[in-house]
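Section handout, structural biology tutorial.
Before the tutorial, make sure you can parse a SMILES string by hand: atoms, branches in parentheses, ring closures as digits. In the record below the ligand is zinc ion, and the chain has 353 residues. In the tutorial you will relate the predicted structure tokens back to the input. Do not try to memorize them.
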Amino acid sequence: MLTLTVPLPGREYDILIQPGLLPQAGGYICSVLPGARKAALVTDSHVAPLYGEIVAHSLSLAGFQVETFVVPAGEESKCSDQLAKLWSGFARFGLTRTDCVVALGGGVVGDLAGFAAATMLRGVAFIQIPTTLLAQVDSSVGGKVAIDLPEGKNLAGAFYQPRLVLMDPTTLDTLPDETFADGMAEVIKYGCIADQSFLEFLGQHATRSAIMANIGHVLHTCCRIKAEVVAEDELDTGRRMILNFGHTLGHAYELAGHYRTYTHGQGVATGMVRAAELGISLGLTPAHLSGSIARLVSAFGLPTAIPCTQDDYAAAIGLDKKGAGSSISLILLDRPGHAVAYPMEKQQLLAML
Ligand SMILES: NC(=O)c1ccc[n+]([C@@H]2O[C@H](COP(=O)([O-])OP(=O)(O)OC[C@H]3O[C@@H](n4cnc5c(N)ncnc54)[C@H](O)[C@@H]3O)[C@@H](O)[C@H]2O)c1
Ligand SMILES: [Zn+2]
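Predicted structure of the complex:
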């Protein structure tokens, strides 16, 4: 068992990583929430038939009364309709403030169920059991929970830390290659911004099977980096910005494909390559780094270039909004494994793009 503690004063919690953890989930949840009687298990329509019963059974064996809430798989479920259905379902189930909400699934389920838990009865204990690579290395750690609005992604949300995060890497075996690659974009990001030796390790293990053969090390390293950054800046006002490496430009590529043609990971992969190229033009980033990142993301089938208009770039850096400041802090690499916030005039950045 690999264990990590996210050291937030008064709200610290453990991340447990172990193959075969799912059937033991109930026991671990019971040990952090000895007073809880009911567990509202939230999952999606792809994950429910794969892992729902294993977790529900384990919760029952640990003494919980369990009800399972299944939302349709996909980003569309991170919406106010599904949130309201969960609230009503929890109320009919008789969930009290000493009970718990368990999120079993990818980032969509984690964000939605987490926001439901944060707001139900002004806060019900929340447990994350992430089942995608992205959710295991990114969305389940850090306490951001949210839903999307018709006006934009993640516009209604909260900071709400889970009480425990349980990761069973064997759940990744059932992920489609494209979804696995999406998570790899974030894994590569952690190497780029915070850990040169991890970046080199990824270069030496640049296939899905080599990553899976070392998945404990990969998950532990990524979660350690995210936990350290989050512990320094829980409410995202400073250092947490470095986690946006590749994301500002990645947003432009997601916009260019109207959020359909390119996945988030594909946008981030290209965004990291482009940010490294920009850093090289500015004399900040070592010359070889854009090529190394490009080789690494390509090895996982992620793109290194996406056609994008100036309008999409302008929208992604906020140049289209009246009253948004004229400068931006772009996250760039000053060496492999180290990121800095680099303030730039938006007009200058757009001209360089
Ligand atoms: N809270 C945060 O800090 C944070 C950080 C990054 C991303 N996010 C959010 O996370 C979401 C994306 O998460 P995601 O990429 O996990 O997407 P997702 O939850 O939609 O999962 C991707 C797909 O994989 C399926 N799936 C999940 N686990 C599976 C498994 N083990 N086997 C087979 N299929 C499985 C899902 O049903 C879905 O179809 C976005 O909404 C994003 O905004 C949040
Ligand atoms: Zn991301």
